[in-house]
Amino acid sequence: MNTRLQHLQTPAQLKTNAVQGLYNKYAGLLLGYIDSVVNDGEQAEKYLIETFNEVAMRFEEFSKLQGSEYCKLQLIARKKLWTFFNSLQQCDVAETIKKIAGSAFDKHISQMSDMQQKVFCGVHYHGKNTATLAAELNTTEPEIRKVLKQAFSIIRNNSGDAGVY
Amino acid sequence: MQEYINSGILETYVLGCATEQEAKEVLYMMEKHPEVRDALRELEADMERIAGNMAITPPAGTWNKIEKEIDEIELRTPREPAIYSDPGQKAPSNKPTSDYIDIESESTHMRVHKGWKWVLLAIFVLGKIFLGFAIYYYFESRQAKEQVQDLKTELKQLKSN
C-alpha cells in the first residue's frame, strides 16, 4: 500500500517527506546544539529552519555524503552559524559552561581539565579550528587534536561506554 | 593505524573543524581501513549522545515554516519539461508510434533566449538605417534623372535653334 502511495507522489513531495523524516528524528538534537551556541531560542529556530532548507536544496548531495545523518546536519548547521561564530569576540568558556549548566552535558564538561574545556568549547560551541586554538593557547595543532580526543574520551566514559579505542 | 586514530584527527573531522585536506585524508583512510571506519562510527555516536544530552523540542510550527520555504524553493527552481528529464523515457504523444513531439498543436507561443533581444533590436535599427538610405538614394536618383531629362530637352531645343 505504502509503495503504491510513493509511486503517486511527485519527486518534490518525496524530497519533502525525506526532509521531514530527518526533521522528526534530529530537529530536537540540532536545536539543542544551536541553542547552546546562540543562547537565543528565536535565533536558534531561525538557524534550524535555514539548516533544513539547505538540506532540501542540496538533498541529493546530502544523501551521497558519507557519515551519520546527525553529523552531516550538524556540519550544515555549523556553516550556517559561521557568521555568528565570527561575531564572537572571544571564546568565553566560563560563559559557555554557565549556558549548559543543569543540562545532562554539564557533568561531562565539569570533569574536563581547563585545557580540555577550552579546546572542546572552542571547537564545538565557538566554531574555532585547531590552528586558531593552537595560536590562542600557545601550543601546536597536534596537541590540540590530542586534547580534543581526551575530551571525547571523558564524554564516552561518563556516558557509561568505557570502550575507548 | 592506531597512532592515526589516536592523533585526534577523527575528532577534528567529526566536529567539522578539519581542513579540506584533512577531511579528504580521513575519508580515504576510512575507505581503506575498517578500524578507522569503526572509530569514526563510534565518534559519530558520541556526537549524537552529546546532542541528545542537550536536545530541545522545536516549537510547534517550525516544521510548517520549513515546509513552506521548501515549497517556495521548489516553485523558484526552474524545471525542464518532464519530456527531457529522462532520456530513456519516450515522449508522450497522440501517435504512439511517433518519435517526434507534436509542439505545434500545444502552444501558439515560443520561448527564445534573452540574448536574441539585442540581436533583434540591432536588426531593427539597421533596417531603419537601410530604409533611410534607400529612400534618400531613390529621390537622389529620381532628381538626377529629371535633371538629365531637362538637359536633353534643352540640348534638343538648342540643336533645333
TrEMBL record, chain A:
InterPro entries for this protein: RNA_pol_sigma_r3/r4-like
Source organism, top-level taxon: Bacteria
Protein's name according to its UniProt entry: Uncharacterized protein
Organism expressing this protein natively: Mucilaginibacter hurinus
Automatic annotation (TrEMBL), chain B:
Chain segments annotated as transmembrane: 118-139
Record organism: Mucilaginibacter hurinus
Keyword Transmembrane helix recorded: yes
Protein name according to UniProt: Anti-sigma factor
Record key words, sorted: Membrane, Transmembrane, Transmembrane helix
